[in-house]
Inverse folding.
């Protein structure tokens, strides 16, 4: 029987206090205890037609795993999740549940939806602490599949294909697997030992990982096409700049560079770690997405006074609400309805000239279009500037394969089976959609893996 | 881990190293580079591929900062944690006619592989190697073999022509038709030397060396301005049309981490001194 829990007993979040977290890169959210997880899971209505599953890009049987949590069968809960998702500790932390599973939860109409993300994370963390159980592998098919890029899409495709019995080679150009999970998302949101543990689980399915291999350079396209099938999961790592005067001054970073220096190269530990970074005393971040919040919060932890400048209104910020809240708690100043127009300085940055924006009639995105207000220029003192205005699909490999059909923004065009214009070449994730979320990339990769399986079995 | 097959000093502060990395060696072409990361705490630094032999390739570098100083201390049998590559676009070594390759200091390291590639395409290749003094000259024998003719200049006249490589380039241009030129060396040397070929409109390439992180087009650290447009040296280069490069912007960005580089090197040297002090008690 389900215990009825009144709305007031909803489990709170366990964020570490601000003073503490500004001095390190340890995780902000402390997660749930076993008792809290059980109480939270007991709130689940166990809907006959669960809407939450419809909101999940990888279709985890959410009511089933929540039921196991409520009963205290945490390992069984983990097994249910891993039927559909090999990276649950990651997804529990970085999925935008509020617009996916939790956004669909019927409880959300009257009270707070079930904290599915926190529960997924709790289950994954508990299993990892006790020793990961690997899912079953089917008998080897004798067929070889190449997966390009070891980010969320590539790892998911590799795991799915390995479980289906394919010999998978996973190519990664950096010295570590994980893609954006390693270089992009900071440790205070996604601890790197957790990423490594889930990657190790994927590799232990028999996936062969080749680091430092840039496909198109270290591996020719001809070599790539010698595999029985290819999945391209090369992501959207091409940083956009704003084209501002002064943008090439020392101290101007793309968010990708700033985050990579810290997350992947540990520049926060310089000079113990060799990679340097400009620790600005006054940092301006331009943008309003999760990447902008991440860059701002990293800069804050490096000791700077940080201002985030966004051209639209606060309610238009594309970042997750809880990340915006945490950024504000950490003392980041928000300047909304403003846009940088010039980076001032000679040898280095001295300030950022901005212009106020007014909101006009809705644009293509359905939001009011921001338009500069004449004569409203103002300057923010700064010595570091970070452009976090988005990324495009990685162009390198795609440009090495001229037969691959591409869209206007450089994205690889795929059909509903994730097939590209080239036989036996599939693609999914940001390289096909443009910059989106970890979980959408994983959902696409999973579908692509099944499409690859179907194709190879029909051959 | 990638094993170091051979490591030796070539000149004052200049070292060469052969590293076994089949994925690099089997695919490397003239003009491309690798990214090294020595160990877990290491930074990623780009180094030009200077030669290839079987499963191994060679880099030649000058000790400037902490990472290159550390690299120079490694011996055959040691290893480098990560080697990514080959990266960047290969040199355009099709048939031009007569090509002149100008190397300044350690930049000369890039030339032999380009010279051999140009020869293979049927070009006449003239090499010009410049250095501050005779002790800093590298690859003289190798360049003599790779080129149809090799000219040497030293700033102080201790070997070859007394003067700059740019002066020798002018002399060659005065005596014969030159169809393409490569100039590879310090940014200031490239900036000045490419002015020699600009009036005659001779196709001139330079290999740019901005600060890089990933080396695969994902961070934009290595952005340069070429022909008024932003390009990433790691994927669009490293070689560009010399006459369209904004060298002042390149040199400005190369100064970004000078204080940090100094701090890091001093810390490393202090650590080495402390270690040597420890040895004396043994």
């Amino acid at each position: 029987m389900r215990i009825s829990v009144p709305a007031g007993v909803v489990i709170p979040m366990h964020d570490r206090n601000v003073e503490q977290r500004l001095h390190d890169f340890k995780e902000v959210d402390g997660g749930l205890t076993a008792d809290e997880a059980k109480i939270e899971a007991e709130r689940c209505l166990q809907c006959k037609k669960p809407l939450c599953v419809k909101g999940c890009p990888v279709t985890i049987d959410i009511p089933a795993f929540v039921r196991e949590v409520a009963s205290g069968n945490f390992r069984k809960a983990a097994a249910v999740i891993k039927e559909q998702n090999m990276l649950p500790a990651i997804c529990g932390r970085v999925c935008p549940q509020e617009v996916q599973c939790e956004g669909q939860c019927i409880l959300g109409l009257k009270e707070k939806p079930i904290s599915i993300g926190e529960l997924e994370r709790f289950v994954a963390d508990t299993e990892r602490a006790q020793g990961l159980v690997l899912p079953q592998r089917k008998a080897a098919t004798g067929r070889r599949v190449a997966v390009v890029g070891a980010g969320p899409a590539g790892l998911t495709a590799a795991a799915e294909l390995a479980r289906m019995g394919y010999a998978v080679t996973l190519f990664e150009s950096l010295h570590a697997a994980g893609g954006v999970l390693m270089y992009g998302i900071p440790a205070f949101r996604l601890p790197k030992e957790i990423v490594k543990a889930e990657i190790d689980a994927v590799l232990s399915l028999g996936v062969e990982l080749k680091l430092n291999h840039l496909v198109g350079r270290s591996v020719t396209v001809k070599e790539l096409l010698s595999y029985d099938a290819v999945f391209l999961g090369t992501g959207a790592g091409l940083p956009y700049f704003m084209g501002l005067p002064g943008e090439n001054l020392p101290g101007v970073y793309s968010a990708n560079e700033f985050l990579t220096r810290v997350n992947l190269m540990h520049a926060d530990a310089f000079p113990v770690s060799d990679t340097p970074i400009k620790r600005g005393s006054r940092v301006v971040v331009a943008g309003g997405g999760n990447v902008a919040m991440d860059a701002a919060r990293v800069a804050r932890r490096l000791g700077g006074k940080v201002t985030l400048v966004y051209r639209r209104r606060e309610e238009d910020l594309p970042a997750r609400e809880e990340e915006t809240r945490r950024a504000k708690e950490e003392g980041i100043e928000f300047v909304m309805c403003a846009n940088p127009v010039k980076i001032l300085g000679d040898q280095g940055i001295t300030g950022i000239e901005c212009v106020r924006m007014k909101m006009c009639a809705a644009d293509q995105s359905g939001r009011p279009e921001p338009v500069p207000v004449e004569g409203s220029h103002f300057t923010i003192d700064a010595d570091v500037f970070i452009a976090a205005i988005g990324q495009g699909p990685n162009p390198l490999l795609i440009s090495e394969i001229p037969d691959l059909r591409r869209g206007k923004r450089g994205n690889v065009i795929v059909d509903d089976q994730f097939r590209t214009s080239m036989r036996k070449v599939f693609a999914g994730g940001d390289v096909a959609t443009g910059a989106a979320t970890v979980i959408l990339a994983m959902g696409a990769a999973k579908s692509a893996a099944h499409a690859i399986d179907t194709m190879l079995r029909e051959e | 881990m990638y094993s170091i097959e051979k490591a030796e000093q070539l000149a004052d502060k200049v070292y060469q190293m052969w590293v076994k990395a089949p994925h690099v060696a089997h695919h490397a072409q003239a003009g491309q580079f690798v990214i090294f990361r020595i160990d877990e705490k290491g930074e990623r630094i780009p180094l030009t591929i200077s030669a290839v032999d079987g499963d191994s390739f060679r880099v030649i570098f000058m000790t400037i900062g902490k990472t290159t100083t550390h690299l120079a201390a490694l011996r055959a049998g040691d290893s480098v944690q990560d080697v990514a590559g080959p990266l960047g676009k290969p040199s355009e070594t099709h048939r031009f006619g007569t090509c002149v390759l100008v190397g300044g200091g350690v930049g000369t390291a890039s030339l032999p592989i380009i010279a051999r590639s140009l020869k293979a395409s049927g070009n006449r290749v003239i090499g010009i190697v410049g250095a501050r003094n005779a002790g800093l000259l590298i690859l003289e024998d190798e360049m003599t073999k790779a080129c149809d003719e090799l000219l040497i200049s030293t700033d102080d006249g201790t070997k070859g022509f007394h003067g700059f490589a740019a002066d020798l380039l002018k002399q060659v241009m005065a005596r014969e038709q030159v169809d393409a030129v490569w100039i590879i060396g310090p940014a200031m040397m490239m900036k000045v030397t490419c002015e020699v070929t600009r009036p005659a409109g001779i196709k001139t390439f330079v290999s740019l060396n901005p600060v890089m992180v990933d080396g695969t087009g994902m961070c934009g650290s290595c952005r340069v301005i070429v022909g008024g447009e932003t390009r990433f040296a790691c994927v669009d280069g490293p070689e560009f049309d010399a006459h369209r490069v904004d060298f002042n912007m390149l040199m400005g960005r190369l100064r970004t981490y000078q204080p940090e580089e100094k701090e890091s090197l001093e810390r490393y040297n202090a650590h080495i001194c402390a270690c040597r002090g420890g040895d004396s008690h043994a």
In short: Chain A has three domains: 7-130, 144-237+392-458, 241-389. The longest helix of chain A spans residues 438-458.
